[in-house]
Fold these 4 entries.
Entry 1:
Amino acid sequence: MSNGIEKKTVIDHVAGFDIRPGRYLINGAFKVPGGINFTIHSVHAVGCELVLFHPMEKQPFAIIPFPETYRIGNTYSMIVYGINIKDIEYCYRILESSPSGKIVKSPYLIDIYTRAVTGQSKWGEKSRNDFTYRSRVVVEDFDWGNFEEPKLDFQDLVIYEAHVRGFTKNENSGVSAPGTFQGLIEKIPYLKSLGVNCVELMPVFEFDELESVRDVNGKRVLNYWGYNTVSFFAPNTSYASVLEHNHEGKELKSMIKALNENGIEVIFDVVFNHTAEGNEDGPTFSFKGYDSNIYYMMTPEGKYYNFSGCGNTLNCNHPVVRQMILDCLRYWVVEYRVDGFRFDLASILGRAEDGSPMESPPLLESLAYDPILSKVKLIAEAWDAGGLYQVGRFPSWKRWAEWNGRYRDEIRRFLKSDAGVAELAYLRITGSEDLYNPNFRGKNASVNFITCHDGFTLNDLYSYNYKHNESNGWENTDGANDNNSWNCGEEGPTENKEIRKLRRRMQKNAFAVLLCSRGAAMFLSGDEFSNSQDGNNNAYCHDDEISWLDWDDFKKNKDLFNFVKKCIAFRKRHPVIRGRMPASKVGLPAYSAHNLTPWNDRFTDQTREVGILFTGYSEKNKTDDIVFLAMNMHWEEREFILPTVPGKHEWELTISTDEEAKLNKMKETISLIGRSVAILVAKRY
């Protein structure tokens, strides 16, 4: 070292470039003094070539073979001098020996650890005719300043699930850069006014929205949602409002920083169950070319297992793949300060190489105990497309939480007055301790939700009995059939005032119950102002008004927005409805059932009126926190006799979806019209 500059020791001169062995322990490509370090590994390779392109050029300007002496084990590493990161894009070619002994070269492959992918930076357009993905070197120089994460307790989360593009793409969103990270930044005041404290973003890793692009009745449909990963370490460049040449990810980092500075955590929806390479008929641009039978689950016949429903399945518990996933998540936490991850079809992450479920999957255990990931939220979608359903029994090590699919299904059924589900609804609202024993799962296990990207919006949940996915081009055969929805008397939009009034009350009921349920709460963006997808419950392919939020609905439905805002604020004021607290001073249990009459915990198939009392002691406020949730899902009016709280307390009606709810403080009763909810607080006097 001299004056802080590394002395260049040239060992070899290959293909017109000065090169030397690189830094084997650091994967990917990164800038070093005077050049660039390239590190890649492959088990089955007999050789490897570095392929260099000038930006946007069709043909490479250099192909540099890695000398055999530059290989340690299965890892190739090389520093190439005299090249500038601004002037290059790069790929690799893997050389393998065929059964006949002939050396076969792979197609151009992106770097598995690349921090940026070129070739599709403008949404919906391929940037060159001979389209191939290429990698780019990124400078990690973002200034986080005096950055500090919100570090919210899991049970305190109010999660807002959103699609980056769809959130602001509509021309009525009122942002300067619709459909981008910048557009989301401009909506932070809106999110703060609503009161959410966490945003869960649908995939933001580089994906191929043009995969399976089709024409349906003259309209282009594509892979809009993004569950089609091209690169796990690279942000989706088409979500940036400006071209970030060699600084890809800067706008995403700015968005995360801005959200965190406003008390809003960021969770990424990550897709480690499959990739955009598809099955044996799909393209080869990454894992297939390096070590297909290591990165993917393969049948004995050499085909691809398909537990993802998308053609291939990542072999997550192979040590090489496991290390890659761990490296990936660490990278996003260290360089992007991500607060948590939701794992799509997470049951796949617990399958062995032959596809069988594992009791203690090494990958899940590694993520649970990793020191870098120790404070981030880990949330599993605890099922997969191969039929493995693990809600309530996903391996956890007291670290993993779950999307509570049973909460969604059973609360939906209860809210539309189905028979025989009242007791299940009671269990879900009070924390699903029948599924998540606190002694074994900890207190941070359940993410409660009624709607998400996959299925009906809340508006459509109470406007349609059946899915209406004809515009997807599959003759309405795609999407779930078991939606537990109810159109309230008429399918689709209606001018009937009574039906419209009932639908609005049903939406408010859903929010009131969700936000009074123990565990983290999550809802789909736009539900707070009655956004609709016209009855489409699988809008994965729609980059249009079906999927884009219509911000005119926000203006039309301010009453619903204000109601949701009020419920969120109430939840924040009352920790007793978020999770267990120290025992109340008045000696009441943490939660109890009072179905129409005090201490009535009898449930029958015909029970549709449920009262729940939550109690606990707030150390912060030095007082008991006592909340009563009254839910009348019968279609006729019912009177609840409220439980008497010891000491000088009286009930106060705080929130109700029945605008004419009748609280009689003297008799300690409240009358609610059919299909309505009320929230009361016991106040000392």
Note: The two ends are 75 Å apart (CA to CA).
Entry 2:
Amino acid sequence: MLAAAGLFPDLKLSFLRAPPESIMSDSTKLCLALHNHQPVGNFGHVFEQAYQDSYLPFLDTFERYESLKISLHTSGPLMEWLDEHHGDYLDRLAALVNVGRVEIIGGAYYEPILTMIPSQDRIGQITRYTKWLESRLGADVRGMWVPERVWEPELTSDLAKSDIEYTILDDFHFKNAGLTSDDLHGYYVTENDGDVVRVFPGSERLRYLIPFAEPHETIEYIRHVSSVRPDSILVFGDDGEKFGTWPDTKQHVYENGWLTRFFDALVENQSWLHTNTLSEAADSQPAIGKVYIPEGSYREMTEWALPVAAQHELEDLSHELSHDERWSRIQPFVRGGNWRNFKIKYPETNEMYSRMLLVSRRLRDAMQTDADPELLDAAQRELYRGQCNCSYWHGAFGGTYLPHLRNAVFNHLIAADNLIDQAVRSEENWIEANAADFNFDDRPEVLLSNSKLSVFVAPTRGGHLYELDVRSICHNLGATLQRREEAYHRKVLGGQNQDNNDCASIHDRVVFKQEGLEERVHYDSHPRKSMVDHFYPDDVSLDSLVRSDVPELGDFVTGNYDAVVRRDPNRIQIKMTRDGVACGHSIKITKGITLEKESSELTIAYLLENVPQDQQFHFGVEFNFAGMPAGAEDRYFFQGDHNHGHLGAWLAINNADEFGLADDWLGLKVNLTPNQPTHFWTFPIETVSQSEGGFELVHQSVVLHPHWYVRGDQNGRWSVSMKLDLDTTLAESRMTQAEAVAT
């Protein structure tokens, strides 16, 4: 009657996906949500091994249990690889989706940390991946996986705008909002600017039980929860690689039958415990309430984001207080750092991040023009690939310390840049210089670029050349990494190898993949970049350089240089000057980089002034080149036609007129040619870092270090000029051959 009176118009209540009679079911629901992921740039054999050890055997086992259901998130990089190499696996998934046994969880296509990328890229990544999943698997994508569960409240709006109804975060997030374990046996809604999304709490208890404890322990825990809350929803949300790829889990989960026993236990207890997809659970009962979740991630991630001293303090205090009966009450209020501080902890992460934002902004601006949409679409995909999160942070996995992942990020970002240039530039050969705060430190950097190279220079940080992009092969020779202290180095230096036969969580393992790692832990006092200016004692040894314990006799290494940029139609140059001190004397250094149109060669010049004639100075300029690994015969040092061995060699070459590095796999030669006889040191930069398999030595870059014993002339001056030639003839010949085959 009220509707007829016009007070309330007839409305269809479409927000209830399930019929009202299904609301508030009395059974306990277990939502098993698996997250399968391999990062952009990971090796093909790693993808294949994970498929054979985890993804395929899990599916083989799961298919046999027709009454069980799961929710599955597979990241875009892995999904594309599966589609290309194991399409039958995706066909089997699609069949399970069709009968309602598998719900496909969406997400950001190439698994970025959402808080790291601009809003338009978040929405673009999510919606692009949803369309792919709908097309390939016939999925109705309602929820998404938040990479590394890195959350900030404003993400709510971007998820809602991407047509995402729900997501999963850890119960740790909810406890940071003041909720307790007793409050977390269902789901909540959260809101931002009027946009609403459902949020499921993933159980940390289940994450540590599955698959490491025997199945009955998981059932007993769920039974206890069910006895208190019969209508509970419990969510296990964690890596699918725990089921076969993590160390020792293949034998434990499959060969020893853990997964079969677990699924058997779920079937045996179906009178009171049902496996549901997350969408079914959301439809079966209303939200417990509303919550505003503070920024955060899972507990371990927040600890890894802390500075080393703070990590030590937290670890020590946690150990000291663990036996205090009050600790369990205090611990929910103890949290670590913000994920964004990885960009402070690892400046190399900030370099990738700032490069990514530069490309993102260029692409956004290009999309406002009439540039070729196909080229811009391809550039967008490359940008999205360059946002893959794994190399932007470090914890129990290799992350930032894995050079092949850093190289892949830059590879895709440079490829995106190249495509944008093709779309917006009218001339094929061009040259330009720009100055701006490219890395967001409130100080200007300089970018010299042409159609072959991009050269990023930081005048206020030692005048370092910190990124050197070889555009034809999409390779950044400056993607280096400084050796620095890590909290886990206490274990390395203590030699605590705890490689047990029992299957343990990856966070609890202490395994050394090589002997003598405690002797290889060294810390650098400066960034491992290029054009780093040193004054050394005359008798400095190569061994002390490798250990980075040589006294610096000057203040130029990270000092502030004044800069001037010069431009003409065919050539650009940055000239940098610093008045400093070396060996107790006031010394002035002027150095410059010149790049010419259509050239892949840099001219690097140095002028030292106020140098006494009666005193010898040991001056050196350090270069670091990344992405050219050691230990392979096709990657080597050369001098003319002479091969000096692989790129891990420690060399001291005297009075040479050239020296270089070759990487035949990349098809690249890097040759440094000074205008006067020069001494050269070479040695590798290697880090002792943590990965899922244990502690290991990782090659990060190659140092090529020209140095001279100098005195001033009658005017107190000394100078040198060097040609840095980046020869990609071999790579380009392969490209030409590949194009010929393709046509």
Note: DSSP finds 21 helices and 28 strands in the chain.
Entry 3:
Amino acid sequence: MTEYCIALDIGTSGLRSQLLDAETGKTIATSITARHPIPGMNVIDHVNYAMTAGRDVANGLIITAVNSLFSSFGADLSKVKVVAVCGNPFQLSLFQNIEIRDLAYAGKNMLESLGVVSPPRDGDILKASELGIKGMPDAVVMIPPAVTHEIGADAIAMLLITDVLDSKEPCIVVDYGTNAEMALVLNGNVYTGSAAAGPALEGQQIEKGMLASPGAIADVDIKSNGWECTVLDNSMKDAPGDVVDPMTGKVVAKGPMHSKAKGITGTGVVASIYCGIEAGVITPPAISSPDGAIHLQDGVNIFSKDIDEAGKAIGALRAGFLTLLIEAGIWTDDVKIAYMSGASGLYVDAKKALRIGMVLPGAEKIIQFGNTSIELARRLALGKVSLDDLREFAKRLRATHCMFATAKAFKDIYSIEYSLWSQGMPASEYNNMMDVYDLPHIPEPLKEPEVIRMAVTDLPETEGLKVKILENAGTVLSGEVEGCTECQSCVEECPENALTIVSEGGKIFGKIQSDRCAGTACRRCERICPVDVLRITPFKQAQSS
């Protein structure tokens, strides 16, 4: 009888899962959510939501999404024996429904005044049924340890899978995502940090943005007669799109993916920004076309506000890189190797990413990995690595964690990045601003670094298998809205089409598809309410409609 195990990665932008044959290790099915089930676009939004709406509500949303994912495999879940989970400390804590306030608040005095005691987070084995996971009564869930309450299993995965600790040269590794974990390895010491970059580099909060799926523009290149788009086909592979005039959108030459573009991924946004800066038509955030937009194929355009959103993310990344260097007492000419992990880190054109600031300035060799988090979950689920192995790894790991939120260098450098990307500061003024803060200059990035790509896709062993994407994981929040006039202003204002207002049994209810909601950082629906009666944080989880 075939027995199964499951690898699960709880990322800030969504959940990824793979069903594996426990004996052979072969991947049987892969399912991912289109978005994260907790309202919000990054880990800070998720923290705020969980703190205001309640930990139980946030936990319920994650578990519901997990159950939807596992159900989508179409397999007999009673044959699952092991589920291995990886993610950052906050996501894993919500998955387990344990204390999160020690992650949300900085400072021992604050935690002591609240009576908060950090849970161990040294790895655990729990019954799946006790966590609320359905259909697998005999399964256990394995949760890897953290190094500290701030440096989690995802950081261990990033360091372990990429083998950066064995590097004889200084190097930096970054897991690119809405919450970008990064580590600088220097003489056996590890300096870690985490930058809340936001979702723009994954195609979210972009006007025509979308996650990677068929019809997404994933790359853009400058050609002699225009800009050529690369579009993901039905098998999620790069395929040539149209060559267009970026100033007008006029099709210069039709490609095989003509008329098939639906939107643009984060990698496509990065490529568009690179091409625009290279061609001299983008001076962030302004675009010098007749209508202030970059025109790609099939009406997919890049706007100034998109550059602003992406620029804030790129700025947070570069500020994080440079802050770690300052923490370690070195600078850009000392670190020649940069590792890029995660989906964004794998699929993006590394040379373009380096040129616009997504990779450490001074990098001469760039090594692109896939999803290290789910790879660690796979190894744990298949018994290729044990919890004891990971605990020993965590103990041996000498790490200094830098809190970017309180680091002066990060604040100073990010203010320069903000001026560059959002306030129209010329790039030529960057190092002059570094002088103002008594910081060293950054070099001009190489145009032709060595690039090594270690994986074909960010999800292992999906060749020949369709990746199922759950557009709706069944996570719905509902609450009565007393005094609502049913004017629908809030519904029309919601930028993500997440909200509906319905009348049931003489009462008015708001219903939110939680994975579409931008959360506490948005609240546009609340602000537009003409009678000021809508409050979404008291909403509780409801059954999917």
Note: The radius of gyration is 23 Å.
Entry 4:
Amino acid sequence: MMLDFLLHPKSIAVIGASRTPGKVGYEILSNLLDGGFAGQIIPVNPSADEILGLNCLHDLNIYTGTIDLAVIAVPTASVLEAVESSIKAEAKAIAVITAGFRETGPAGTKLQSEITQLCSKAGVRLLGPNCLGLINTEHRMNASFSKRMPKAGGISVLSQSGALCTAMLDWALARGLGLAKVVSIGNKADLNETDFLAAFTVDEQTKVIVGYLESITSGDKFIKTARLAASTKPLVLLRAGVTKAGMKAASAHTGGLAGDDIAYAAAFKRAGVIRAETFDALFDYAAALSMQPLPKGNRVAIITNAGGPAVMAADAIEQSGMKLAALNGYNAGNLKKALPPAAIISNPIDVLGDAGPKRYTTAVRAALQDDAVDAVIVILTPHAMTKPAETVRAIAASGSDDKPILAVILGSADAMPERKELADCNLPDYSSPERAVAALRAMYEYGLWRNHPTRVVTRFPVNRRRVERIISRHLKTNHIQMGEVETKEILRAYDFNVPDGHVANSPEEAVEIAERIGFPVAMKIVSPDIVHKSDVGGIKLNISSPDQVRDTFDLLTLRVSRRAPEARLNGVYVEKMCIRGLEVILGMTSDSQFGPMLMFGLGGTFVDVLKDVSCYLAPITADEAMEMLMETRSYALLKGVRGQADVDLSEITGGLQRISQLATDFPQIEELNINPFFVGNVGTKAMVVDARISLRRDPKTQEEAFGDST
């Protein structure tokens, strides 16, 4: 297996082993012994001859055996020496538990860099620093300072926070769930989330991967690795630092740079990651995914002994986008015969408040046997006359290999079986209908992603040479803001429909252009120093005569001289007025972690006020372009409402795909904005009305982009 010396070591040196309970070095050594680690344990402490019954080395340099893993728990100032001695002793992997590195500032960053370089030069993999350690239940190895040793199971955990690792261990123990691997990655000086995702993907013991992240080291590598992992087993991640305050805290916590949360959401979607918004959701999802099969559809049956919780469940199902299943007549008839006359047979199925194990079992089996049902949520509200513990066991025993059952258990905790017993029965339980429905929805959406067809990205025939020349010219003259004229020239090269237009340097030239392209025309100032032309009165529309063209030319140049006297004026752009359509916005911005990210939204107040946009990472497929449209709340307007005709959606999806290709062809484009993009009825061509591009000053990026064609 990958990282075998770290995850399956045969010998472990504990550098900084202590005789004092409560100290990290003592707890790690004690945990290795208490967990039943069968390999060799080598305590290292210059002041001790024996600790916890083991012979202790004063110095690792005198050790003559082999060391697979060195666990370092010494003061920060001594870590560098401990790393050097571990490498000299030919340790294959090192875990630095000690804090006080990059998360503390420049001095700590320098020290972390030094130990990282030492390990890299020696070919030794480094975990941490500033981490809790790691656990492998199959190997009976608890090389951490968490006293909790979970039972063996199928969930593997990685976390950027040691404290949350401990919370995850507590959660698993409370629910009676087994874990496979638990890894605290800390500052990620060498080994990071991508390395462990790759290792867990090929680990036969791991059935579900759960993680807490504050930052991602390499966006592109993460997406590829996470996508491979999610294609074989569920991957559930909680990403913190989604607000400005959270991002600042995350940076202070681990010293990592937290990216834009919109980009993270797009990356998780692309990779098939199941995103948990809260700590509770992280384990709600993990429990269901580790215990139950994925639903094949979104039709849900509710079985309950109380009306109120069933209504809550029905509301949550509809709000989540899933459906209440419509039971077929045969199963409904059988249920009517088997249940009391007062029972409600329609979905939700109400087996009444005094229902016991037999009545619940009858309803559960009938629902599971119904072809119209994809999943079952069972609600149990204990009453004095019911047998809740026996009922829950009966429900678990009625399970199916191909349809999931999730239980909602309300109240009377003392009467319930232990959580461990429920886990042993593979029955995930929840404290509210909403949490159960959220877990079921996560399972359903993951199943959809798993069954999604292979991604095929369309490549359009374009004039890449023309774009290379324009971008190269701008970068050579250090102009990173590209105006409307040059941007439209680039978009024409990628086959966007752009109104005919040319730059005029005099009123007479403007008249000649207007007469050649045909009235009415629009006139706009051209200046590398003015991004928003309307701010200085630099736009005038619907000009319909030569006299108006002359007057407008003089008016626009006068306004610029008065309102932006320092701005350079390179002429006036005379452009054919186009037929109006529905205003939409197509855009792209380059995320520092994940690269080009596409944006779609309706124009006007939909973007400015409602923030109704969708974002996907490039490159996108035709299906993903359509998904971008469908994810907006205003999608109904595109389809036509109250007698309005549908707009041509293919013009929008095609435009998004062309921007996707442009952004991936030229990574030195930092931002692109087409606003507005007029879209007409089906069969009409969409039109670029205004657009701009920002470039990045990055010689390496420029070299990579032009490397294949120069």
Note: DSSP finds 25 helices and 31 strands in the chain.
